Amino acid sequence: MDARFTDEQDEIRRTLRDLLDKRCGPQELRAAVDTPAGHGRALWTALAGHLGLPGLALPETCGGAGGTVTELALACEETGRALAPTPLLATAVLAAPLLLALGTGAQRAGLLPRIASGDLTVALAVPGPALATALALTGHDRRGQWAGGGRAGGVQARRAEGGWQVYGQVDQVLDGHSAELLVVAAHTGGFARSRVLLFLVRGDAPGLTRVRQTALDATRPQGRIQLRDTPAELLGDEAADALAALARLGDTAAACLAAEAVGAAARVLERTVEYVGQREQFGRPVGSFQAVKHRLADAYVQVQAARSAAYYAAWAAAAPAPGAETAGALALAQALEALRRAAAEGIQLHGGIGFTWEHEAHLYFKRAAGDELLFGPVHRLRAQAADAAHVFEEAGT
After folding, report:
1. DSSP label at 288?
2. What is the rounded CA–CA span in Å between residue 156 and residue 176?
3. pTM of the full predicted structure?
């Protein structure tokens, strides 16, 4: 493994950081999350149209840049550093790989170039609070019971004249209230012979109702979608193994989420170090006290270790190797812990101002807590990785 980044990868990081420093400061961030969509259209246009972020990991034949998960993870690290509220995670990390893996030739040709250009945003709708299970990060359900199990609840799909219809409700859909296209996981075939398939639902389809939900992390907007006999298009064909595709997607998603958390942790730690170097107490900077130095040093070591794990997870997802199956989940667990630690230290070491809701340190703490609710918790990420690696199985069993 060559741990060095290429000149192109370094340029992605540098260019993206410069743009976000100029266009996604604290004031711009708070203004964006207060919009109905939860993100600024102008920033997304700049990231997609000028830098081509949504197409970084898409093939050139689909209008993308032909990169890998590594480039996408580096971009996520920078957007995480700024807590940039964009559809990048929902569209490029969670939805686009599914369209690429399962879509028919016509579906890929019609959708992926629009995603790469930023003209189309997509959201993945997984019934119930089971996104981490569907991605095989905190469990692996080979029957897809998280999608409703073919019983009442979840989302059901049935054949209708000229296609398919879906019925049900999905909560906690990242950017589900604003995405122009939804990828919906639904059960079909009744209870006895039910299976999970993925369906494409237009944002303006009849029978679709969407509303933005109040989320702990305002920079990660979520929506609730209700489907009432809504026309849908099957993604790929009926022979497609949607559960396996979702499980494979988990490696990519975990690597990008880990890199994003590392970027956020590094940024809040930088701001804290800068502040304690300026704030004085008893006639000397707070940062000169040994107890403060030790706490910040411990947080720094934790962030750097998480960064190494996130980079390895991105490399493993881009070039799968034997024994690297658990890299994503472990990196995500380590990165979420590092972010929570760095944000907590930031709040406390900023003193009285740090405990006010208006201070940006709280945004980073909420990102850590919100991501753990959506994709964790940390102990389950590690438990699933241990099970996948057969850590606790006796020899010969």
Report:
1. G
2. 18
3. 0.94
